Amino acid sequence: MRVAVDRGSCCGSGNCVVAAPEVFDQDDTDGLVLLLRPDPPPEAADRVRRAVETCPAGAIHLTSTTGP
Question: So what does this one do (predicted)?
Answer without folding.
Answer: Ferredoxins are iron-sulfur proteins that transfer electrons in a wide variety of metabolic reactions.
